[in-house]
Amino acid sequence: MSATTNDIARKLNISNATVSRALNDRPGVSNELRQKVINVANELGFAPNMAARSLVTARTQTIGFVIRSFDQPFSSDPFYFPMLTAIELELVLHDYHVMLDTSGSDNVSHLRMVKQNRVDGLILAGPNLNLQFVTSICNSGLPTVLIDNKLKHTKANTILTDDKGGALDATQHLLQHGHRAVAHIGGPLEWVSSRQRYAGYCEAMQGVGLNQQMQSIHTEATTIATGEAATMALLTGPNPPTAIFAANDAMAVGAMRAVSTQGLSLPNDLALVGFDNIDLADHITPSLTTIRIFKEQIGQLAARRIIDLIADTTSAPVETIVSTELVIRRSCGCS
Questions:
Q1: 161-198: per-residue pLDDT in tens?
Q2: Do the Cβ atoms of 301 and 322 come closer than 8 Å?
Q3: Are 98 and 178 within one domain?
Q4: How many domains does the chain have?
């Protein structure tokens, strides 16, 4: 059983309050006494009681991570789970922990971790969170960071990917292979990531005078199923493309299914580029050319930003954009 602050107080013949001030970096304790308290705490194997510490600091030492998964368990999500892992690793360095919420509630008053004052801040991840919910959280005064989401009229602390730049690189790569009938499949244009990736596709096509050859289908979600359906519609349409830029790797996998169903092959009959660089991209056949998102870096930045906000709640909102990288494999026609 680990020692308590009472044990340290008795050993040094000082008050419990003095021990608490010394251990929690509070004023009113000399440097000499603070060091003595720390030495005795280490000697006795003292482990801070986080519940008790929250009473002293008025903090819970906990950050909430809120996400709304589509049709799969969060633990199998190839996109946001690495971010959560990076967030947790960074927060531990600051003596913080993560509380996960995937319940699906879009009502702030129903979010238990907020209602019960169990978190010092929130990280909201994903474009499919209810807009009113996100706005209410950002205006509540609770330190909040958004990942892969952005409000149109409310300034908020946001960590985004360079979606437009990545989409531009992806589409230009297909154009460099000689394709002119390049189509795009993506998610709802209400999502900032979908808008930006579509914008990058448009800029690449328009940059080489292919305005009339542009084709795009935007679906209600970016899943394997929606990618398959969108690709099937393109391939069976009047002007089937020779290449497709998919807004994420899940949709690209769906596109591969549609290509197979039509009796076609990649990259001989259709070139394909995805976005996200999930682990599966390197293990499917053919391997998927895609845009790498630095998910761990995004998680680390979000964790550091939320810690800064807790320390200074008056700091101005900051938008951070993380760069991307084209990962060339075989689905585009590169050997």
A1: 999 999 999 999 999 999 999 999 999 999 999 999 99
A2: yes
A3: no
A4: 3
